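User: My instructor asked us to take a sequence, write out its structure as tokens, and then describe one feature of it. I'm not sure where to start. Here is the sequence I was given:
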Amino acid sequence: MPVFVAALAALTALVATRRRRRRRRPDRFPARTEIVSPPQSTVIARDGAVRSVQSAELTLAPEDFKRMWNATHLEKLARTYWLFLSRMTLWTIRVVYGENERSVVFLGRPLTLLRFDAPQYELERDHGKVSWRIRDGLLVARAGRGCGFLSLDVRHIGNEPDGRVKVRIEVEVANFYPAIAVGFSEPVYEATQSAIHVLVTHAFLRSLAKLDLAPSKVGRFAVHRPDVRAAASAAIERARHLRDHRPRPDGAPGPRDAERSEAQNQP
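Assistant: Let's start with the prediction itself. The structure tokens for your sequence are:
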């Protein structure tokens, strides 16, 4: 465990460095994000349960809002979060998809940091939410297994005077019992795992200004576009079949039927 904590400390420094480099880039994005997390965004209760809420307000054009405000893009948002976590940590942390679980691994199994149940979705007119129940993992205290959850919450909060749309996005971890706080101390947890979570989450929220969401790995709400070329080919083939087998006005068989009859009558 001490070696593992040291690795987390090094990872914290790596994430902080990459975050500073990203913020120096003067890119222009189609949307605007503003971090609105409260100063005390992470709270540890007396029983050791952690609640962390990191928030941002995303301002985007109405046409982008109309295009993205659906279940398909909520699922893409979830995938983008996991992918961003891997990229931000130079792929030292990866997310492994199982049939009924998601595992956050360090370098690879069996170093499973966190294991979640499959996601649950809430879909409303002005609100969407995806949640993962925290099952277990190296970062979860034994007494806290199956208690906490991680969620991404998206809510339409209004429009700007110029017509642009405002959306609040929250990343929440609740009722989570960290193993580091139990095995070492809460200050060690705050300086390592908690710090990494806040840095990565804020960087993720800022990155949403690009409006570039990753394709879902599962595709639960994917909209399958029809294969236009295949449909056109099938329609042409059906038209040819009807033309070749349609009887003539004088009652004579169609061209294909006549050829088939002539072939059958040959000795």
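For the description part of your assignment, you could build on this observation: Residues 228-265 form one domain. Try explaining in your own words what that tells you about the chain.
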